[in-house]
């Protein structure tokens, strides 16, 4: 299992041909208290860089982009009832959606944890 | 770098160092670098004001003294009535009133507070408008008043149900003050000008004092465990839940006080048939609207789902029509309501409380109910 990161502060946990996607703890700290999450529909085909989800704080709405292309296999419905999970456990329980990876080649441009830590330093 | 140059051009209030020390996340606002939140976060800051007490730095706002050249306060009051549709003459010494500067077409140039301090009027205006307001006052009132911007004064607000007891612990004699009372008070040994008012819907106080004393007073207030510093983020969600207008968003030079649902702020004496009817900029437009209403109106909006409806969202009469009938002017999430909340303009035909319209958010039409404001009961001490 590998965890990769995007410059837009998303993480991807890769297990076989499935990627679980969330936002990073750094991202949640910048967003502030999350009050609303809009998730993609299961079955939707996402293209890399298109808006996949919306995360809203009291103050503002932020887009979460699809870090890679793929079909949405599952979404984390727990976030709809409890958006604040993103603040308390961004890297864990607050995963947003799972994608069936369309092109493993798209993973090549992503960062490992050390590179991402440097990116947010 | 451009960003850095812009950063350095921003002005600081006298509490800038305190903001940084308290973990303030600083953002540009009306030419100042201001805290949008502290380490507490917007949600908890908001709820803390509703449950306890919060301290706001509003030193970026403009404070202006109007001193009558004749020495008679009513001459300053009469002069100011040329620029606002409010009854200023009737503001008793030690009292304060909400007002608007209007333009020739009845639009609002700024909204403000006017206090009568006995020998002069004391105005508090919006930060983004203060230079224009000062010029407007000079152009309109210089014959009758000396116009004195009080640039060496700071302004803070202490808001929330525990505000009175916090000030009392610092020796301030404020318990007898009622909503919109205003006058000199000593707080922790510092001479201040205090009004019982605010921008949160809560009981609370606004405190003007010399800039060099404000850090000491802010530290004394924050030393009380009931008080947390509150940033602009919670200031916005608090005033939105209270149904209070944000100038430049909910009201501006194109909206009249009647369209802005601010008729309550225009006293009978300035209306048609009143003792000093009209005589202010835009009276030709505003006075008839006071009699018969305007074609559009600012209303409160409660979106039915969980999704916040933000400023700029278009409002539609139904789920399919292509023509928007209105626009959201402020919107977000109300932490005390635990629900989205907004305000915007609708045609009078759709502005009745209980009407359902549709707000467009990311291509979806969300049913949104017209609701009475304030959205939460205000707790002013009348």
Describe this structure in words.
The complex is a heterodimer of chains A (121) and B (382). Chain A is α+β, with helices and mostly antiparallel strands and 121 residues long. Chain A is 19% helix and 38% strand. The radius of gyration of chain A is 13 Å and the shape is globular. With 382 residues, chain B is α+β, with helices and mostly antiparallel strands. Among the domains of chain B are: 4-59 and 152-241, Gyrase A, domain 2 (2-Layer Sandwich); 295-382, Elongation Factor Tu (Ef-tu), domain 3 (Beta Barrel). Chain B is globular and about 60 Å long. Residues 1-5 of chain B have low confidence and may be disordered. The A-B interface holds A 32-33, 35-36, 38, 54, 56-61, 80 and B 36-37, 41-44, 46, 233-234, 236-237, 306-308, 310, 332-333, 335, 340, 362.
Write the layout of secondary structure elements.
The complex is a heterodimer of chains A (121) and B (382).
Chain A: E1 2-5, E2 10-15, E3 18-23, H1 25-31, E4 34-38, E5 45-46, E6 51-57, E7 61-65, E8 70-75, H2 78-81, H3 85-88, E9 97-101, H4 113-120
Antiparallel strand pairs in A: 1-2, 2-3, 3-9, 4-6, 5-8, 6-7, 8-9
Chain B: H1 2-9, H2 16-21, E1 25-29, E2 32-37, H3 42-51, E3 53-57, E4 62-68, H4 73-80, E5 96-102, E6 108-116, E7 121-125, H5 130-141, E8 145-149, E9 153-159, H6 163-169, E10 182-187, E11 190-195, E12 204-210, H7 211-222, E13 227-229, H8 232-241, H9 283-292, E14 296-303, E15 314-316, E16 326-334, E17 339-347, E18 356-361, E19 364-371
Parallel strand pairs in B: 3-13
Antiparallel strand pairs in B: 1-2, 3-9, 4-7, 4-8, 5-6, 6-7, 9-12, 10-11, 11-12, 14-17, 14-19, 15-16, 15-18, 16-17, 18-19
Helix pairs in contact in B: 3-8
């Amino acid at each position: 299992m590998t965890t990769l990161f995007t410059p837009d502060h998303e993480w991807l946990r890769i297990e076989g041909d499935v990627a679980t996607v969330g936002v990073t703890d750094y991202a949640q700290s910048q967003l502030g208290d999350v009050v609303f999450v809009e998730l993609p529909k299961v079955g939707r085909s996402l293209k890399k860089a298109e808006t996949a989800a919306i995360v809203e704080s009291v103050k503002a709405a932020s887009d979460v982009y699809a870090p890679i292309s793929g079909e949405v296999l599952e979404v984390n419905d727990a976030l709809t009832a409890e958006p604040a999970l993103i603040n308390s456990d961004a890297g864990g329980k607050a995963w947003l959606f799972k994608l069936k990876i369309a092109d493993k080649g798209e993973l090549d441009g992503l960062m490992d944890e050390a590179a991402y830590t440097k990116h947010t330093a | 770098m451009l960003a850095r140059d812009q950063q350095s051009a921003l002005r600081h209030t006298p509490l800038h160092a305190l903001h940084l020390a308290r973990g303030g996340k600083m953002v540009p606002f009306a030419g100042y670098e201001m805290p949008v939140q502290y380490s507490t976060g917007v949600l908890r800051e908001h709820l803390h004001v509703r449950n306890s007490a919060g301290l706001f730095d509003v030193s970026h706002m403009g404070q202006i003294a109007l001193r009558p050249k004749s020495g008679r306060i009513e001459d300053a009051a009469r002069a100011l009535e040329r620029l606002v549709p409010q009854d200023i003459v009737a503001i008793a010494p030690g009292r304060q009133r909400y007002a608007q500067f209007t333009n020739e077409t009845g639009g609002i140039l700024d909204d403000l507070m006017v206090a009568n301090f006995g020998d002069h009027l004391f105005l508090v205006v919006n930060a983004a408008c203060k230079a224009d307001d000062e010029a407007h006052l000079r152009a309109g009132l210089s014959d009758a008043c000396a116009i004195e911007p009080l640039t060496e004064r700071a302004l803070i607000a202490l808001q929330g149900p525990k505000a009175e007891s916090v000030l009392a612990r610092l020796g301030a004699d404020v318990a007898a003050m009622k909503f919109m009372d205003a006058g000199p008070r000593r707080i922790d040994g510092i001479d201040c000008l205090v009004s019982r008012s605010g921008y949160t819907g809560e009981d609370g106080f606004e405190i003007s004092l010399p800039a060099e004393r404000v850090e000491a007073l802010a530290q004394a207030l924050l030393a009380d465990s009931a008080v947390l510093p509150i940033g602009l983020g919670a200031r916005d969600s608090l005033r939105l839940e209270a149904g209070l207008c944000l100038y430049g968003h909910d009201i501006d030079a194109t909206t009249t006080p009647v369209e802005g649902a601010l008729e309550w702020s225009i006293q009978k004496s300035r209306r048609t048939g009143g003792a000093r009817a009209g005589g202010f900029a835009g009276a030709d437009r505003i006075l008839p609207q006071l009699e018969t209403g305007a074609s559009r109106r600012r209303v409160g909006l409660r979106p039915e789902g969980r999704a916040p409806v933000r400023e700029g969202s278009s409002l539609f009469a139904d789920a399919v029509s292509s023509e928007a009938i209105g626009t959201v002017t402020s919107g977000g999430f109300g932490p005390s309501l635990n629900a989205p909340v907004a305000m915007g303009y609708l045609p009078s035909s759709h502005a009745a409380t209980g009407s359902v319209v549709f707000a467009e958010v990311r291509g979806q039409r969300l049913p949104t109910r017209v609701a009475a404001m304030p959205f939460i009961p205000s707790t002013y001490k009348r």
